[in-house]
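User: My notes are a mess, but here's the protein and magnesium ion's SMILES. Can you give me a structure?
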Amino acid sequence: MFDHLTDKLSSTFDRIRGKGIIRESDLAETLGEIRRALLEADVALPVVKDFIAEIKTRASGEEVVKSVSAGQTIIKIVHDRLLALLGGDDEENALHLDVAPPAVIMLVGLQGTGKTTTTAKLAVHLRDKLKKKPLLVSLDTRRPAAQEQLKVLAEQISLPALPIIAGQQPQDIAKRALQAAKLAGHEVILLDTAGRLQIDELLMSEVAEIKRLTTPCETLLVADALGGQDTLNVATKFHEVLGISGVVLSRMDGDARGGVALSLRAATGQPIKFLGVGEGVNDLDPFHPDRLARRILGMGDIVSLVERAHEQVSEQEAEDAAKRLQKGQFDLNDLAQQLQQMRKMGGMSSIMSMLPGIGKMKKQIAGAGMDDAMLGRQSAIISSMTKLERRKPGIIHASRKKRIAAGSGSTVQEVNKLLKQFMSMQKMMKKMRNKGGMGGGGMPAIDPSQVPAELRHLLPPR
Ligand SMILES: Nc1nc2c(ncn2[C@@H]2O[C@H](COP(=O)(O)OP(=O)(O)O)[C@@H](O)[C@H]2O)c(=O)[nH]1
Ligand SMILES: [Mg+2]
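Assistant: No problem, the inputs look usable. Here's the predicted complex:
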């Protein structure tokens, strides 16, 4: 997500970053580039206009243009305005559930935008992150099997769904849900409502009635990030008629160029609370404007990366790996583990997209064949080795190589390549240990000081 926008903005910034003095013509050119980048990312035109105008006002003062580090100052201004556009502070974008339980979260939106999937994702988030006991409730009596869809999802994530009573109307199901939650001590009720292909009176009066009955503390619109201007119109309409408290933007993993995410708040005045980033129940990211702004501007999102590392890789695992590295005991088992950890953290491209200054490195990395498919192939090759081979790769000669290649569905050349790469990694580590510092090497330079200690062992060796 935002890849194209980030590329564009990064190269614009690269041109002005080091500049002490920025002439009016430089500024005009920079603003033109930012404007084009935003429009190409599908940001709504009025939003782009306002955004550029604000930056212009703030940047064209004498003191900025002629200040010692004009380039940096302009980058800072763009960052601050982008942050404001995305929604300022985290507080507003968080879920607000501080009411007497059960707290009701109602999900509304058109058909097929991801309401039911998001209901399950939110339930997992509530349980795992917020330590709450949610109850899943489907009020979608319109579409056949819609209630079963939620029931199946609830079973998958081992959370309770309100039992289905055939023929019951949404209003009555909602009332039953409130009673059941009180009896069973559920702290949060998630109400998945019916959608339509288009907004109509009937849909709106039904959800309005349910809202009145259940007084939700969050009424979240689930909206499709791929929908462009339509999504903005739908959001505005829902807010006018129903009053929403926030938006979950689904399908941010698709080829959404980000425009909706950047325009929504300005268009509706409502905060984005989550981004849906895939079909799985864990594919939901809380919306953090500051992190996203940094990411869009190519400044990296170290905070999210560290969080993900903590979720996916235990502290013990990270510590053990670091110790073995220090002792020079790095073998193919460690490499296999490293590869697995990277995959658990979302794969190479996802990790890379969160590291600062990555724009320039992307091509180098692609050139080195360091992609997710490679992580998978290399893991497969190592899995086909025996324990002894992994500990002592030196014994892997021709016949063993053939066996390993056959076992992993790869070629002897690929096995050779992996072994060669491993040997050079091992050599580098020995050198590092002896010199007590990072050596040269052909890999793109990531400044290790930019990367938190708990992640450094995952960086490609240099
Ligand atoms: N790629 C992707 N697909 C999603 C996302 N959220 C939902 N979907 C898919 O969109 C389709 C419709 O979702 P559903 O929850 O049934 O929509 P509903 O009609 O609003 O309840 C399903 O195939 C989901 O797997 C998302 O964030 N990313
Ligand atoms: Mg549904």
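The CA atoms of residues 51 and 57 lie 10 Å apart.
User: Great, I'll file this with my notes.
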